[in-house]
Amino acid sequence: MTIVKIALEVVVVIASILLTLLILMHRGKGGGLSDMFGGGMGANAGTSGVAEKNLNRLTIIVALVWVAIIIALSLMAKYHIG
């Protein structure tokens, strides 16, 4: 069971990094972190509507996977599995 625990920990680290990058890629609505890095250049400079929807979906999927793995790891720790 330790192999499963190690695999889940590796996946949660990868998902954390990916989730951070996906959140930073979102278009800023003003005054946020994305504006600090040049995200507030104009309405036409941002991503298209379809790309923004796909980015939202991918961010939600990665976030749900991240939450599920965190819950699984905490349950494994609580019941001393692995």
TrEMBL record:
Keywords in alphabetical order: Cell membrane, Membrane, Protein transport, Translocation, Transmembrane, Transmembrane helix, Transport
Keyword Transmembrane: yes
Biological role: Involved in protein export. Participates in an early event of protein translocation.
Main location: membrane
Pfam families from the UniProt entry: SecG
The keyword Transport belongs to this UniProt entry's keyword annotation: yes
Organism phylogeny: Bacteria, Bacillati, Actinomycetota, Actinomycetes, Bifidobacteriales
InterPro entries (UniProt xref): SecG (IPR004692)
Location in or out of the cell: Cell membrane
Topology in membrane: Multi-pass membrane protein
Gene: secG
Protein name per its UniProtKB record: Protein-export membrane protein SecG
Transmembrane annotation, as ranges: 6-24, 58-77
Family assignment from sequence similarity: Belongs to the SecG family.
